[in-house]
Amino acid sequence: MPPLTVLNAITAVKAGATVLLSGTDERRRDRVVLAFERYGRGKSIALPVHDSWQWQMHASIRVDDQTHENFWRQMLRWLVDGVPDPVESRTLTDRVEGGQPVALTADVVDPRFVELNDADVVAHVKSPSGRTSDVALQWTGERSGQYHGSFRTDEDGWYEARVEATRNGKPVGTSITHVRAAPDDAEYFDATMHAQLLQRIARETGGRFYTADAIGSLPEDLKYSGRGVTAVEERELWHMPFLLLVLLVTTCAEWALRRHWRLA
User: What is this structure's pTM?
Assistant: First the structure.
C-alpha cells in the first residue's frame, strides 16, 4: 500500500474515542490515521490524511484494485448505520395482559434531526380482529420531541400501532410497532424443581426438604416442631421490683425538678 501523508497530525485522542488505524511518519513517530467517537446517537470520524486517493491512482496499484472504493463505501455505510428515522415509536413492553392499557411513546425529529414539539402525532391501532382506532399522542413536555399516548387491549393477540406524524399539514414520518396481549406465562418458565438448591436452603435455615414420596410425614413433623411458635408472657409491674423502683425514682426526680424551677 502506498504511504500516506498526515495533513493534521493527531498525537492523542479523547477519552471516548477509539483508534481504528495508526501508522508512523517519516520520522518514525506514531500517528493516528483513522479514529472515531460516538456523538449523541451518531458517529464522528477523523481521517487526518489528504492523499488516500493514492490507493486508487498510485503506480503500484493495479487498475482493477477496489481498495479505494471499498474503503470509502464501507466507511460511509458504517457512519450512517443506525441513523434514527424521523418517527420512532416503541412500547414499554412487548406483551401485556388482555384488557390492560399499552403505553406508546414516539420520538419525532425533522430532516435535520431536530426534535419537534409542535407536530400532530396519531397512532392508528389495529386489533387482532382487524378493527382499527385512532389514538392521539401528546407531547410529554418533559423531553423535546417525545410524544406519549395509550390504548386498551380488548382482545387477545397481536396489535399493530402505525404512528404518523405531520407538521403544518405536511408528513414528517411513519413508524410501526407491535405488541401482544396474552395471559402471563412467567410462572411456567423453568418450572422444574431445583433439588440441590432447596436442600441447601433447608440445611442452612434449619428446615427440611421433602419430596413427593416423603410428603406423608409432613403433618407429623409440623405437629412436633417448635419452630415458628411464639409464646407471650405477661407480668405485672410490681412483680419486678427493680423496674418499679426505677419508675418511682424517675417520677420523683421529675416532680422535684419542676418544683425547683417553679414549673409546678
Answer: 0.50
- 85 and 66 in contact (C-beta within 8 Å)? no
**C-alpha cell at position 82:** 443506525
pLDDT tens for each residue of the chain, 264 residues long: 555 565 567 777 887 888 888 877 777 777 888 888 887 767 888 888 877 777 778 778 888 888 888 888 998 888 877 777 899 999 988 888 888 899 999 999 998 888 999 999 999 999 999 999 999 999 988 899 999 999 999 899 999 999 999 999 999 999 999 999 988 776 666 777 888 888 889 888 888 888 888 888 888 777 666 555 667 777 776 677 888 888 889 999 998 888 888 776
* Strand extents, DSSP E, the chain: 18-24, 30-39, 42-46, 87-91, 95-96, 101-108, 120-126, 132-139, 146-152, 157-167, 170-181
In the chain, what are the domains? 18-80 (no CATH), 87-181 (2.60.40.10), 192-224 (no CATH)
Cβ-Cβ contacts under 8 Å for 126 (sequence gap 6 or more): 132, 159, 160, 161, 162
Tell me the longest C-alpha to C-alpha distance in the chain: 112
Beta strands 157-167 and 120-126 are antiparallel
